Every structure is written in C-alpha cells, then in structure tokens.
Amino acid sequence: MPQLPPPDYPDDVRARLETDAREIIARYPGSRSALLPLLHLVQSQEGHVTRTGMQFCADMLGLTTAEVTAVATFYTMYRRKPSGDYQVGVCTNTLCAVMGGDAIFEALQEHLGVGNGGTTEDGKVTLEHIECNAACDFAPVVMVNWEFFDNQTVGSAKRLVDD
Asked: 125 vs 107, 137, 156, CA distance in Å?
C-alpha cells in the first residue's frame, strides 16, 4: 500500500515558517547547508521533527525527503517523537561515567520511572544518555534543554530534575 504524503502545515504556520526558512537559507552560500538549522526550525514548531517538517525542509531546499530523513535520523538533537518539556541528558561517556555519570543516569531512571529516551507520565521530562557534552573538565555533566550543569552528583541531579 503506498504511503500517503504527510499533511501540510496550516496556511498561517507555513507562511511564517517559509519566511523564517528563506531568511535562514540566505545566510548560506549553498542552500543545502541550511538543512540543520531548518530542522531546528521545524522541530521548534511541534517539539519534534515530523514527516510534515521533513517534507517542508525538502521542499524549501530542493532535496528529497530521503535526504532530509537521513540527516534528521543521524543527529540525536532532532527528536522523532513527542518528548517532554525538559530534555535531560546525562553524559555517560568514559570520563563522565567514571566520575559518576553512570550512577547519575541509573539514579535518574529510577527516580523518574523512565528508561533511556523515556518521558515521564506527566510529559514534563525526557531522560536520555548522551555520549559527550564536550565539557570533560567539569564531569559529570547533566544537560537540561541544552544548558549545562556541571560537577553533578546523584543528589544534585535529582534536585535538578525535580526543580
């Protein structure tokens, strides 16, 4: 059975996104280079990158949806399903893990009642392990909506997600 095309954005939303997209695309010598920022743009619309968002990016850049999907699924910063209001990432790369990142991640899974990539029942917090936050000097690092919280402990990380 052929797959139906994704629904389009409402006219007012599409007009706003097109205006923003054209401004972003104009910043790059080659339009294809604007794909990552356009994926951020469509993600900001619905909280995750939808099929509609990927089709929008493809249309704006003259790419296939397969090309857009390949990029959107490669990078972990693009959500493919609805997630919490707060994205909590715990670095579990080697240094952070040794410094307590693994213990923090395990404690937060238990504290929040979710696994990796899971969202709390109230829809507030999505927890994920992150391979590297590029802040090894401050290990272990927890990130909330792209804001870094360094030198974390199990206790401080639990307070952080509760707050």
From this structure: 15, 26, 16
State the Cα–Cα distance between residues 123 and 119, nearest whole angstrom.
Answer: 6
- Model confidence pLDDT, tens digit, residues 128-139: 888 877 788 888
CA–CA distance, 93 with 89 (Å, rounded to integer): 12
Q: Could you report the per-residue pLDDT of 15-49, keeping only the tens digit for each?
A: 999 999 999 999 999 999 999 999 999 998 888 89
Q: Are strands 142-144 and 147-149 parallel, antiparallel or unpaired?
A: antiparallel
Q: How many domains does the chain have?
A: 2
Pairing of strands 86-91, 125-130: parallel
Are 48 and 98 members of one domain? no
